[in-house]
Design a protein that fits this description.
- The structure is a homotetramer of 151-residue chains.
- In chain A, helix 1 crosses helix 5.
- The two termini of chain A are 17 Å apart.
- In chain A, 38% of the residues lie in helices and 21% in strands.
- By secondary structure, the first copy, chain A, is an alpha/beta fold.
- A seven-stranded parallel β-sheet of chain A has the order 4-3-2-1-5-6-7, with helices on both faces.
- Chains in contact: A-B, A-C, A-D, B-C, B-D, C-D.
- The interface between A and D is medium-sized, with 19 and 19 residues.
């Protein structure tokens, strides 16, 4: 079955985080995964860009009610109007998570994933028991596409 | 902008409803619309099938937490775990609704759409002020792709 | 177990609907039911007022994120920020529904209730198979407190 | 305005955490606050018990669809059927959070609160920038009732 992998990270990101997210997106697309993000800027946009440039499918699950807020690399934009509660939908829709960087929204997604048994791979993110830390985008992709859902 | 059109209708449908849904799906795909459904059987599956066979993009917003419940014509399956509350997400994600047949779940989607200003086109569905009734699939597609969102 | 009964109806209501809602609220309080509404004006406010004046407990499940929007007769205000998606939460939290009047928001709640097996009693509302129509507030209260949940 | 304070913590808790939660619940009730929890056992139950014994009002926002799952000290039980997504509703309904202990569900609530500007007071919980750490229940109550919402 096609893996669905969420890439979560801050809307305002460092150059390194953006480069990692783009490489992660490309790697996921090369493995045939559907890339799910929160649909906005920063890490979300970079992951979508990397995936789209590599010919992959990108889904943006947006906090607001207007699809126009999606970054230009989102192929399928789902406007939810749920605000930050949409973070939980991103986790539910994914088989695994790749977390990049350490914002609070990202942390809420990581925590929900750990709570509900969705595997989390971390690239320079929160250090929590349960997250698999990796050093590079390629390893994150390999781990995220291999780990089965625990629940 | 690409129109997003939700096709809503019962999971257990008549042969006529299934034929209408499939024709609606095909028509929407031919116009370049993204077809959103609840992702399960009956009208939802027929609409997805029609769209997929015509080369269109189909999104299924599922009530359960397991993507495997999606019908085989869904390209992008979003498992929400929200139960019938996912009906509201279908309405939010769409620019307009085509309602086929008259089940209660469909009615909840139609009512939410009318309440929130999302145009509704009806094919043999509930007769309510605010729904644009049409007699054939082609007209439903034309109406759904033309009407701007009211809000 | 304490019955939880939702009273649903339009924010802009007629004098008759308001009088019915207030009488329904009072009747529910007299039977020891918790009264759940959408927390705003019109039928919601009249039902809360009737219940509060009779010493009952009132819960308002609000569409917005600000508790201050609750009508003054709401004892417990739950700000959801979900917009009209909170309608589904009202239905889920209730053992039965009393629907007064015929707005679209009300219809979405009635339809979700019928779809999910929550009994619906109607006072001058939509005529749908599955709704128990009654003529007076006292009968609505009696029916709503007696009917077991179907699912 | 009556403060609404959420007490969040694990369903399986240590004796110390339970004692802290019960003292926090009592303290909140004594200040007239409405105590919101996830409605289940452990820290949630102890906080409700403390509040109820002190004559306070307790609200349980449950993950499941059955009100019977609420602990016996919940006065108002809201069955949501949202699973862990109800964590976000707890945060939205509260003016401030008191976090006790360090489970993943708790972390998701803390992270959402920090993301959306709801003040968080911590008693033996995650150490994160933005959480106000305190050493005792009484201080937690005082802080939670004083801090205004930041957003």
């Amino acid at each position: 079955m096609t893996p669905y992998v969420a890439v979560v990270g801050p809307g305002e990101a460092t150059a390194q985080q953006l480069a990692q997210a783009r490489a992660v997106g490309a790697g996921l697309a090369n493995r045939g995964a559907v890339v799910i993000t929160g649909g906005l800027g920063g890490v979300m946009e970079a992951a979508c860009r990397g995936a789209a440039e590599a010919g992959g499918v990108t889904v943006g699950i947006l906090p607001g009610g207007d699809r126009a807020a999606a970054n230009p690399w989102v192929a399928i934009a789902i406007a939810t109007g749920l605000g930050e509660l949409r973070n939980g939908l991103i986790v539910r829709a994914a088989d695994s998570l790749i977390a990049i960087g350490g914002a609070y929204g990202t942390l809420s997604e990581v925590a929900l994933a750990l709570k509900t048994g969705v595997p989390v791979v971390g690239l320079g993110t929160w250090e929590l028991e349960g997250i698999t830390p990796v050093a590079a985008a390629e390893e994150a992709v390999a781990r995220a596409c291999q780990v089965p859902r625990l629940d």
